Amino acid sequence: MTESQERQGPLTDLRVIEMGQLLAGPFCGQLLADFGAEVIKIEAPEVGDPMRQWGREKPHGKSLWWPVVARNKKSITLNLRTEDGQEIVRNLVRNADILIENFRPGTMERWNLGFDDLHKINPRLIMVRVTGFGQTGPYSSRAGYGAIGEAMGGLRYVVGDPSTQPSRMGISIGDELAAVHACMGALMAVHARERTGKGQIVDSAIYEAVLNMMESLVTEYDVAGYVRERTGAILPNVSPSNVFDTADGKLLLIAANQDTVFKRLAQAMGRPELAEDARYATHGARGAHQVELDSMINDWTKTIPLDDLEELMNAHGVPCGLIYKAEDMMKDEHFKAREALVKVDHPDFGPITMQNVAPRLSDTPGKVRHVGPELGEHNDYVFSELLGIDQDKQNALRDAGII
Question: What are phi and psi for residue 148, nearest 5 degrees?
């Protein structure tokens, strides 16, 4: 089976050049690769993407993040700061559909690899540019990591307990949101290209990707002067929708805030009269009495072991969810039935488990084909087969530190 036949999904006709490093750009590349695009990742010779070293656990001195974020991609080495390296990029671009980069604005232009330069070579090229603050505006030249975008996009202020400083989400959500928006923009641009025949720039700013998720936060302030504050585990004025204690010291999230669902919860509690009580009969009333209602429910849940409580909620059609850690996910029958997690062979660790491709397409699904590649693993394929550079020239480029 050839490499092109092995790739599957709706994007197998697309070739992507991934430049940049860390997470915001590379996660966009991962999403495209998951659905079949040929993603050629460019890394600095000898050093590679810092993601090869990131992560808290490093068996054998190797990252467990890299196999995920670089899965399904090809890796080549190239010194982009050299004229020869830049010329190789220009040659790659001739037959590419998308180029992803997440350098500071102006970097690609200094290398003569800006959109205007590359568009002359390939008018159909779509250039995806992921940065902290976007390509324009007074902040565009600032360094902008995901945490900064989360802060200025409004997320950090509303995350955490009101008694603490603003909290982190526990994952690099700003970078990942920017990458998801970048991927969405790239596919929109591919669609537009079908009509116009021309590529364009996709400008994905981290702070704007975060801002896009902030619901009516700005409008609430603009119209009503309302400022959303940190509320911890609860959703203000929405009850019951909280994490509740159980008899065996565990937790269950119960969300029964809709009128009909609250009636079912009241039945499960053996207190159907609560659904007729003026304090709890409507969504607004329950919100106004949130503290006392949540406390009442918690007093009840604390008398029931977790497994029994979950079974009772499901029997009455009350939405509930366990607070999962990775271990719980790997044991869960639903995760197994839907293959939400997948095992992939790794050259050092053997089979390793990671999240599967999402979303699911019925006719052209994506697939995790392999873990993140070794540094420069696909140099021969790209330089020899795609670009026709002979071995003598490749050796000279390697000796010069260009590949």
Answer: -70, -40
Residue spans of the domains in the chain: they are 3-213+339-399, 241-324
Catalytic residue, candidates 34, 49, 97, 175: 175
Look at residue 271 and give its three-state secondary structure: coil
Which CATH architecture group holds 3-213+339-399? 3-Layer(aba) Sandwich (3.40)
Judge whether 175 counts as a catalytic residue: yes
pLDDT per residue, tens digit, the chain (403 aa), is 445 557 889 999 999 999 988 899 999 999 999 999 999 999 999 999 999 988 766 666 778 999 999 999 999 999 999 999 999 999 999 999 999 999 999 999 999 999 999 999 999 999 999 999 999 999 998 888 889 999 999 999 999 988 889 988 888 999 999 999 999 999 999 999 999 999 999 999 999 999 999 999 999 999 999 999 988 888 788 889 999 999 999 999 999 999 999 999 999 999 999 999 999 999 999 999 999 999 999 999 999 999 999 999 999 999 999 999 999 999 999 999 999 999 999 998 899 999 999 999 999 999 999 999 999 999 999 999 999 999 999 999 999 999 9
- Whole-angstrom distance, CA of residue 168 vs CA of residue 175: 13
- Bond into 26 cis (ω within 30): no
Superfamily of domain 241-324, CATH level 4 = formyl-coa transferase, domain 3 (3.30.1540.10)
